[in-house]
Amino acid sequence: MSADDTLAPCPCGSGAAYPECCGPLHAGRPAPSAERLMRSRFSAFALGLPEYLLSSWDPSTRPEELTLDDTIEWRRLFISDTTAGGPGDDRGWVSFTAIGRGPDGRFEQAERSVFRRGPDGHWRYVDGEER
User: Fold this and answer.
1) Could you tell me how far CA 9 lies from the centroid of its own chain?
2) Who contacts 103 (Cβ-Cβ below 8 Å, separation ≥6)?
3) Contact 115/35 with Cβ under 8 angstroms?
4) Cα angle: 78, vertex 79, 85; to 5 degrees
5) In the chain, % of residues over pLDDT 90
6) What is the pLDDT of residues 56-85, one digit of tens each?
């Protein structure tokens, strides 16, 4: 799928089409919750958008640069739990499993991620702990 495919479902697994789901966030609209930011970051990995990943990363933990591995195909995202991260919160936690395929076959990445909302109203990824 490419970011220009208006009929395909969004890679994040929401069931909505990309232009109504993660597309606006990738274009700069703030995510309304930590979970939506998590979904948009998964879509950015799936679509190869390192600039978005860096811009949605908290400056306190963000790397200087990010190179994506083009041998990895991100296929599915499962959100298992969210804690806080809504409109009235400044922090949130999202537990997820991401399914990918690489040169050695299928793999899973399970993590509990921490998100923080900045003074500009944008949620950003801080860090995560593997589960």
Assistant:
1) 15
2) 71
3) no
4) 155
5) 93
6) 999 999 999 999 999 999 999 999 999 999
- Cα angle at 43 between 26 and 16, to 5 degrees? 85
pLDDT tens per residue, range 28-45: 999 999 999 999 999 999
pLDDT of residue 7: 78
Q: Nearest to residue 30, comparing CAs of 118, 103, 102, 127?
A: 118
Task: Give the DSSP letter string of 9-67.
Answer: BPTTSSSSBGGGTTHHHHTTPPPSSHHHHHHHHHHHHHHT-HHHHHHTB-TTT--S---
- Report the pLDDT value the prediction gives residue 4, as an integer from 0 to 100: 53
Other beta carbons within 10 Å of 94: 26
Are 71 and 102 a contacting pair, CB within 8 Å? yes
